[in-house]
Amino acid sequence: MSKIDKCLNIEDLRIAARRRAHKMVFDYIDGGADDEKTLAQNSAAFDDLELYYRVLSSTDTPDTSTTLLGTKIDVPFILSPAAGNRLFHHDGERGPAKAADKAGTIYSLSSFSSVSIEEISRLTKGPKWFQLYIWKDRGLVKEMMDRAKAAGYTALILTVDLPITGNRERDPRNGLSVPPTIGLKQIWHGLQAPYWCWDYLTKPEIRYANLSDELSAVSLQEYVSTQLDPSFNWDDAQWLLGEWGGPAVLKGVVRADDALKAVKTGFKAVAISNHGGRQLDTSPAPISCLPTIRDAVGDSVELIVDGGIRRGTDIIKALALGADAVSFARPYLFGLAAAGEQGAIRAIDIMVEALKRDMTLLGVKSIKEIDRSFVGKKGS
Ligand SMILES: Cc1cc2nc3c(=O)[nH]c(=O)nc-3n(C[C@H](O)[C@H](O)[C@H](O)COP(=O)(O)O)c2cc1C
Questions:
Q1: Is the CB of 276 under 6 A from ligand 1?
Q2: How far is the CA of 229 from the centre of ligand 1 (A)?
C-alpha cells in the first residue's frame, strides 16, 4: 500500500500536503481571508445539521449518478476550479483533470491554470467546464472563451466573488508570488520541504499557461488589481453570455436576489460559493444559504454548492437541502500537493467511497431519493 493510500480522509491528505509542500504553498491552499472566520464556518455549518437516516431501505450498491447541465456524471460532485496547480506539484492541473475523468465527473479549469486550455482538453475524454475571470481587456476575455469553446469545454463558469482579491494575510507574510521569489525566508522554509524544492527546481517553472508570458504576474493580488475589472456588472454579464453562446454558471453567489438575477440574465446554474472563505470574511457558509436560495429560485436553475465539503455526509446534506450537485477544491488540492496525480486521485476516491457508504447508511438507493426529510438542524 502506498503512503498516500494510507490517508483515510481529507484531513489526512491535508497533513500529508503540509509535510511535503513549502510553507508558502501550503498556506496559499489552506488559508482564507482576514481572520478566516468564513473559512472555518464553511465546514462548521455542516456540523449544525444532522442526518435522519431511514431503515430497511438500503442497498450496498447505491446509484450515485446524476445529471448537471445536461451532462450525465457518475457522482453528484464536480471539481471546483483552482488557480496555478503547478505551484503545488509539477503534475499541475493534469492530476485533478485525470482524477475527475477516472471518477466520471466534470473537471473545471481555472483561467489562471498553469496547464493550458488545449492541453487539458486533449488529456482526457471526460467533460470539462472553463472558469473565467473578467479582464479589463475584453479582447482577452473573448479570446479565452473562443479557445475554451474550440477545445470542447461545454460550459462556462463566471466567477464573480473576486472583483479584487481578498485579504489573505498568510500570503504576504510568507512572501508568496508567482513565480516564487526566493529570499532568506523562502530558503529557510524550503529546507523543511526538500521534496517540494526538488520538484520546483528540476521541473518546468510555473506560469499562467493561458496568458502571454509578459503578462505573468509577480503576485496574484497585484495581477488581479491591475488586470481584472471590478466594475463588471449584470449588463456586462448578459453581453458575456451572448458571446459564449452556451450554458453558463454564475459562481460566487450567497444571496437569493442575486440568484434570481442570474436566472433572469440567462445563467443555467448558480454556484453558491464564497470562494472557499478566501474573499469577504464573515460572509455566510454556502450550505446555510442553500435552502433560502432553493426556495427563491424553485426549479428554474441548477444549484451547485461549494465550501467546506470534506465528507460524504456533507455531500448528502447539500443534496438534501436542494443542491443538484456540490463541488470542492481543497480536498483534491491537498492530494495534489501531497502526491501529485495519485494524491488527487486518492482525494476523489475517498469522497466517492464515503458517499457510497453514507448513502447505504442513510437508507437510499439513488441520489434522486435524497430530500429534505433526511436533514434537520441539530436538536430539532
Ligand atoms: C488554492 C485555491 C485556488 C483557487 N482558485 C480559484 C480560481 O482560479 N477560480 C475560481 O473560481 N475559484 C478558485 N478557488 C475557489 C474554489 O473554486 C472553490 O470555490 C473553493 O475553494 C471551495 O471551497 P473548498 O476549498 O473548501 O472546497 C480557489 C480555491 C483555492 C483553495
A1: yes
A2: 19
| pLDDT tens digit sequence for 288-317 | 999 999 999 999 999 999 999 999 999 999
| Bridge partner residues of 326 (DSSP) | 77, 305
Segments making up each domain of the chain, as ranges: 4-48+75-358
Please confirm, yes or no, whether 275 is among the known catalytic residues.
yes
Task: Evaluate if residue 206 carries a pLDDT over 90.
Answer: no
Q: Which residue, by CA, sits nearest to atom 29 of ligand 1?
A: 82
Between CA 115 and CA 93 the distance in angstroms is 6
> Is the distance from CB of 146 to CB of 140 less than 8 angstroms?
no
* CATH class for the region spanning 4-48+75-358: alpha beta
CB 266 within 8 A of CB 240: no
Sorted by sequence, the CB contacts under 8 Å of residue 193 that are 6+ apart come out as 20, 21, 22, 23, 25
Whole-structure pTM value: 0.97
Which cell is 202 given?
528540476
- Whole-number Å distance, alpha carbon 184 to ligand 1 midpoint, is 29
Reduced to 3 states, what is the DSSP secondary structure of residue 193?
Answer: coil
- Residue with C-alpha cell 508570488? 177
